[in-house]
């Protein structure tokens, strides 16, 4: 409530008031003072009050609100427990499960595709294909579950990668 007489003063209280968020005491506009990181804190609860500059009394009831920090894709996926190694017995049946790799991403899984993981081959594509339908396939990978299967017994080297979200994205 601004009476347009210059006697209204806006005050901000709550989590991050004065350090993360500041209020222009003349206009009531709220600004951030530093970049926010959802992985550090995902929401702030604040209270804004319009007061009389001379008496410091509230001119109307305070407004309570929540500021939710929207995530961006700022964290690369990380493989857990790597490096991985697997062996396949000679004469293993086609479709034999070989290894399951696991990666995590600190980004918010409920917002967009920031934390959605897609598993890919970074090196060794010439030895791998899927899903066991080409003439000489060796391995196959499920991009959603990260499970690897044998399509043909053999020993090959490969580098696995995991990418956040759908292409284009950073791959690690």
Automatic annotation (TrEMBL):
Keywords from the UniProt entry:
Calcium, Membrane, Repeat
GO CC, sorted alphabetically, is: adherens junction; catenin complex
| The keyword Translocase appears for this protein | no
Record flagged with keyword Membrane: yes
A GO biological process held by the record: adherens junction organization
Q: Which PROSITE patterns match?
A: CADHERIN_1 (PS00232), CADHERIN_2 (PS50268)
Q: Matching Pfam families, A to Z?
A: Cadherin (PF00028)
Superkingdom assignment:
Eukaryota
Q: Which residues form the Cadherin domain?
A: 9-79, 80-157
Gene Ontology terms for molecular function:
beta-catenin binding; cadherin binding; calcium ion binding
Its primary localisation, in coarse terms, equals: membrane
Q: Which PANTHER family match?
A: CADHERIN-23 (PTHR24027), CADHERIN-24 (PTHR24027:SF272)
Question: What name does this protein carry?
Answer: Cadherin domain-containing protein
What organism is the protein native to? Muraenolepis orangiensis
